[in-house]
Amino acid sequence: MAPPAVNPRLLEILSSLFGSDYRADCDIQFCLEGAAAAAAAGDAAAGGDEALGPLLPAHSFVLSLACERFRAQLDRWRPEPVASSARPVLRVPLGGKDELPAASLALNQWLADRLAATGAAEAGSSAEPAEPAVLQLYACEDLGGPSFAAVLSTAKPQLVRHFGSTLAALNTPSLTKQLEALPAAGLEALLESDDLGTDSEDSVLTLLATWMRANWARTDAATRKRLCGLVRLTQLSPQAVSCLLLPLAFDYEVKGPEQQAGWFPISSAEAAFVSAYLAAPESWRERTREAQAAAGAPGWHSARPRKQLYTCIDARLTMNRRRGGQLSVVSSCTYDKTDYTCVGLGWGRANALPLSPQPPATGAAAAGGEVLARWAEYAHEGSAVTGSMTLLPSK
C-alpha cells in the first residue's frame, strides 16, 4: 500500500516553523566538525567554544519525523542539574565558518525534502509560494563545501520539478524570470538532468541562450564552457545545427569569448563535425560518439535523450479533393521520426495543397488584389478537402 500523501499546505506550515521561537522546544547549534564529534562523545566542554553562529530555535516533533540523527540526539539528551530548564541543543557540523551563511537555508530545504518524501507532494492545493525554498537555497553563493553535497543532491530533483520542462520555463513569464535569476550552479543542475522535460535538445540550447542573455556579464570563460558542454550536441536537430550552432561557432571565432556574441565556445570545424555526424550512418555515429566521449569532448558526454514531452512517430498525411462527386488525392506526405518531426510539432509542408496558377488581375481585382483566387477550386459549393493520417509501423 502506498504511503499517505503529504498535504503541501501542512508541509509549508511545518517548514515555516524553522528558526521560529513559536512553541520551540529545542535549539540547533552549528559548530565545527571536531566540536560536534566531541559533543557526541559526551565532552560538552570540548565542544562549547567551537560554536558557529547563534542558537537556532527548532521543534523536536518536526526534527524527529524528518531526521534519525536529530531523533537520536533528542533521545540521548538529559537536562543538566544546574540548568534543568534548558532546552536540548542539537549540533550540526560544518567544515568551516565560510559555510555558515548558507547552512540555515540548506538545512531547512533538506528537512522539507525529508518530510515530503513520506508521500506524494502533488496532493492538496496546487498553490505555490512566491519564492520556493529550493530557489532560495541555490541563491546562496557558498554551496561548494562538502557539507552541502547531500543537500544539493536532494535539492537538484526539486529544482528540476519546479521548472518542469524547457517549454514551461521559456513560455511562462514567472518561470522565465526565475530561470534568469538562477546562479550558474542552478542552471548546471537543470542542464545535466535527464529528467528535464523537453520537446527536443533544440529547446535546451534555447534555454541556455535565454539564461546567458541575462547573465553573461556574471560568468567567466570557464563557467560558460562548463554550461555549454552540457548541451547534448548529438541530440540537436539538423535544423538547429545549421541555423543556430554554426552561426554561434562563427561568432565565437570572429568575435572571441570576450564578446557576448561569442558566448558558446565551439569552433566552426567542431560545429561542422556535428552536422556531418547527424547525416552519417548509425554505425559510424556510434563509433564517433564513443571516441568523442572518451576524449572528453564537450557536448558528447551523453547520447541519452532527455524526458520527452512529445512522442515521435512515423506517419503519412494524405489530403483529398472532391470535385463533381469524384475523389482524387492531391497530396501525400510521409513524416519520418528520424527527420525530427513530432506529432503536434511537425515542420509541415508549404505545398500540401497544390494551388492553381495566379490568373492575371483585371479591374477591381487588380486594384485591391484577389488573394483567394488561387483557392477557387477548393472554395466553391460542392468542393471539399478532407485529410487522413496513417500511423506507420516501427521500422
Topology:
Elements: H1 8-16, E1 26-32, H2 33-40, H3 44-48, E2 51-58, H4 60-66, H5 68-76, E3 89-94, H6 100-116, H7 133-139, H8 149-163, H9 166-171, H10 173-181, H11 184-191, H12 201-215, H13 221-228, H14 238-255, H15 268-279, H16 282-294, E4 315-323, E5 326-335, H17 363-368, H18 376-379, E6 384-391
Parallel strand pairs: 1-3
Antiparallel strand pairs: 1-2, 4-5, 4-6
Helix pairs in contact: 1-6, 4-5, 6-7, 6-8, 14-15
What does this structure look like?
The protein is an alpha+beta fold and 395 residues long. It has 18 helices and six strands. The strands form two sheets. A three-stranded mixed beta sheet has the order 2-1-3. Strands 5-4-6 form a three-stranded antiparallel beta sheet. α6 packs antiparallel against α7.
Low-confidence segments, given as residue ranges, are 1-5, 43-49, 119-130, 344-352, 364-369
Q: How much of the sequence is in beta strands?
A: 5-15%
By CATH, the architecture of the domain at 1-122 is named: 2-Layer Sandwich
Largest β sheet strand count, sense and barrel closure:
3 strands, mixed
What is the string of SSEs from the N terminus onward? HEHHEHHEHHHHHHHHHHHEEHHE
> What is the straight-line distance between the termini?
40 Å
Shape: elongated
Named CATH topology of the domain at 1-122: Potassium Channel Kv1.1, Chain A
Computed structural class: alpha+beta
Under CATH at level 1, the class of the domain at 1-122 stands as: Alpha Beta
Summarize the structure.
The chain is of the alpha+beta class and 395 residues long.
